[in-house]
Amino acid sequence: MIEEVLATARYNAKIDPQLGIWTWEIAFYLFLGGMAAGIMLFSAWAVLGRRQDELPFAHNRFALWAPIVLSLGMTTLFLDLEYKIHVYRFYTSFQPTSPMSWGAWVLVLIYPLMIVQTLSTLRAGYTMLADLLEKLPGGAALLDLCEANRRLIAWLVIPLAVGLGIYTGVLLSAFSARPFWNSGILGPLFLVSGMSTAAVLPLLISARGPEQRFFERSDLGLILIEITLIGLLLISLATGAEQHLQALGLITGGQYTVPFWLWFVMPGLLIPLVLEIAALRGIRVAGLAAAVLVIFGGFILRYLMVEIGQVSTWTEYALQFDPQLLERLTQ
Amino acid sequence: MTTYAMVIDTRTCIGCGDCVVACKNENKVPAGLNRDWVVEATRGEYPNLETEFRSERCNHCGHATCVTNCPTGASHYWKDTNIVLVAAEKCTGCKACIAACPYDARLLMHPEGYVDKCTFCHHRVEQGLDPACVSSCPTHCMHFGNLDNPDSVVNRLLRERRHKVLMPETGNQPNVYYLI
Questions:
Q1: Do B69 and A22 touch (CB under 8 A)?
Q2: Alpha-carbon distance A308 to A303, whole Å?
Q3: Within an 8 Å CB–CB cutoff, is residue A54 touching chain B?
C-alpha cells in the first residue's frame, strides 16, 4: 500500500484537486479549427478536380465558410487566455519547440490563404459580395488575380489545411505530461474528424443530387477512418506504460466510460455510420440526421479529449481531509 | 549551464510546513495559492508502516517541458542555469506550461492571470543566499547548492547518501533530490 497525502494545504485554482485549465473554449477551438481545415480541403479538392458541375457548392460557395468558422474558433481561443491583454505576445517571438507557437504562426499563413481562396470563388458563388468588393478601389483587380490563380491557391491550400487539421491534435499530443493525449494518433484523428464535420455541412446547407451523394460517401469513408483511428488510439494506450494503462482505464471502466462510449462513439460515430449508409440508399432524412450527429460527435470528441487528458496525470495526491480517506480506512 | 539543486532529507523532515510559510512570506504568494507544499507518503501494511515527508515544489528540470512548450518564451531558464522562471510580461495565460508539467508545480496568479511558480528564490541565490524555504527549515533537512561544484553541500550529500528524484521516468531531469 502507498498513500500520498498533502500534509499542507494546496488548492491552486484550476490545478487542484485535478487539472481543469482548459474547458469548452479550447474544445470549441479545436473543433472549429478542424472543421475550417476540412472546408478548405473540400473546396480545394473541387477546384483541383475541375468538378464545378458535379460539386457546385464545394466549388463556388464552401470556401467562404472557412474564415468564418476559424474566426469563431479563434474567438473562443482568445476567451480561454487568462492574460488576454498579452495576446500579442504570440507574435513577438517564435519558439520552435512549442506546437502552440507553430500554430500561432501557421495561422498567419492560413488566414490570408483562406481569404484569397474565398475571393477566388466570390464572383461565382456570392455575386452580391463580389459586386460590393468590386466597388472598392482595386477590388475587381484583386478578384481577377485570385480567380486567375485559383488552381495555384487550391494547391497551396492542401498542405496548409492538412497542417492546420493535424495541428489541432498535435497541440494536445505534444504534452508528454498527460498520458491520454500523448499519442501520435491524435493529429490524424483530429484531421479526419475535422474533415468529417466539414463534409456534413453541405448536406445541411444546400447540397443536392450528385453533390449530396459525394458528401455522404465522403463522410461515410471518413467515419470509417475515424473509427479505425480511435481503435489505434486505444491500442496505443493499451500497449503503453503504466501511466498510459491508467489513462486507458478512465474510458474502460473509469469515470469517463459512459461519456466516451455513450456520448461520443455511439452517437458521434456508429449511429451516423448506419445513417449515412441509409442515406446512400435514398433515405434523405437519414443523411440530415447523420450530419447533425457527426457535428455533435466532432465537438464531443474534442470536449472529452480535452477533459480526459487533464485528468490523466503522473501526479496524484489525496487532500489531507478528503472524506474518501476515511472510507479507505474502513475498507 | 550551472545546475542548482535542492536536496531534502526525508529522514529529518517532520512535515511542519515552515518551508511553505517561508515561501509565502518571502515571495508574497497570495492567499489560497502555493508554490510549495508538503506530502506525507505512507507505505506498507499495518503495523509495518513507513512514513516519509517530502517538501515539494518545481523541480527546475534540466529538460523542462514547460519551457519547451511555452509559445512566447515567457517560461525560460534564468541566466544560463536550470532555474526555470516565468516572465509575467510575456505570459499570455495560455496554460500550455501547466499542461506540460508532469509535477503540476505551476499556478495561475489571480486576478492578473499570468502563470507563477517556485523560482528557487533566484533573487536570494543572486546574493549568495539560500532559498527562503531552505533558510527557514527548523530541522535543517533542506539543502541548496551548485551541482557543478564537487565540494558543494548538495554534491557531498548526494555522494554519501541514498537518494531519489520524483518520477525520473518523465525524462524531465528533475533537480530536487530526496535523501532516503
A1: no
A2: 9
A3: no
Which residues 114-133 in chain A show a CB within 8 A of chain B? Answer: none
Integer angstrom CA distances of residue B122 from A69, A95, A101, A243, A255 = 45, 24, 27, 33, 41
pLDDT band at A284, cuts 50/70/90?
A: confident
Residues 6+ apart with CB under 8 A from A242: none
Alpha-carbon distance of B127 to B131, in angstroms, equals 10
pLDDT (tens digit, 9 = 90+) per residue, B28-80?
999 889 999 999 999 888 889 999 999 999 999 999 999 999 999 999 999 99
Q: Which residue's entry shows cell 496568479? A: B109
Task: Give the torsion sign (CA, A229, A232, A238, A242).
Answer: negative
The position carrying cell 479526419 is: A192
What average pLDDT does chain A have? 92
Q: Is B48 left (phi over 0), alpha (psi -120 to 50) or beta?
A: beta
Instruction: With CB atoms and an 8 Å threshold, state whether B93 touches A83.
Output: yes
* Residue type for position A13: A
Q: What's the complex ipTM?
A: 0.90
Is the link from the previous residue into A188 a cis peptide, with omega within 30 of 0? no
**What amino acid is encoded at A118 in this protein?**
T
Nearest CA among A29, A107, A101, A167 for reference residue B97: A101
